Inverse folding.
């Protein structure tokens, strides 16, 4: 996620920044899925998974906010 944000910022273009922010948001959703699978397979305790999923959701909300500020 941070690499996508950094790359988008480095492109110096709002449309490209939106593209990379959207990719970062997709990565957040992918991570959420992996955390849920880890909990389901008992590789991660449910309470830890819930905490981390909550953090992913917060990052997703922040990315949504950034995307809204760049809407044309």
């Amino acid at each position: 996620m941070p690499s996508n944000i950094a790359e988008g910022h480095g492109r110096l273009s709002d449309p490209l920044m939106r593209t990379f922010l959207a990719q970062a948001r997709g990565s957040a959703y992918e991570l959420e899925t992996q955390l849920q699978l880890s909990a389901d397979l008992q590789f991660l305790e449910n309470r830890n998974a819930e905490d981390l999923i909550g953090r992913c959701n917060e990052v997703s909300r922040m990315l949504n906010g950034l995307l809204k500020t760049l809407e044309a």
